[in-house]
Specification:
Elements lengths: L6 H16 L8 E12 L6 E12 L8 E9 L10 E9 L5 E10 L2 E6 L4 E10 L12 E4 L3
Antiparallel strand pairs: 1-2, 2-3, 3-6, 4-5, 4-7, 7-8
């Protein structure tokens, strides 16, 4: 037998749905920062300008570890000179460790316009730096260093 919901039941169901929509899908304090930048260089293969889009991402914390952070640099769009296997993506970071000391991680590099690196133990002041150097290039071959400061 079907019973029509009362106003009280409908209101309670609506409130639960609203609270579930507000519930975080990541641990409390989790933050993912990202930025997208366009970069133009002159391709050696064509002599023409090429514009690529670079996505820089920072995550803190990663998973359930409150002191684990990640940084990722990726070429996400553009014509074929943007996705050359020999393009080098870089990510590096600076942060304060739990004892208060400043850590400066060297650049991690990856071919094909992609790299992801992990940093630990991060207590505060995380800043990641992202850059791509393009192989099929005549001039202006490297992006500026894109910076993502953490909110933690």
């Amino acid at each position: 037998m079907f019973r029509r919901p009362t106003r009280r039941t409908a209101a309670a169901t609506s409130m639960v749905a609203s609270l579930m929509a507000l519930a975080p899908s990541q641990p409390a304090g989790a933050a993912t920062l990202s930025r997208s930048d366009s970069f133009t260089f002159t391709a050696a293969s064509t002599g023409s300008p090429v514009t690529c889009t670079i996505l820089s991402t920072q995550e803190l914390p990663v998973g359930d570890d409150p002191q684990l952070a990640s940084g990722e640099t990726q070429v996400v769009s553009g014509p074929p000179p943007c996705s050359d296997y020999f393009d080098v993506a870089e990510v590096r970071a600076t942060y304060r460790e739990p004892g208060g000391g400043v850590v400066s991680e060297p650049a991690s590099v990856g071919n094909g316009g992609f790299v992801k690196a992990y940093f630990r133990p991060v207590a505060s002041e995380l800043v990641t730096f992202h850059r791509v150097r393009f192989e099929d290039c005549v001039s202006s071959c490297a992006t500026p260093e894109y910076r993502l400061p953490s909110t933690k």
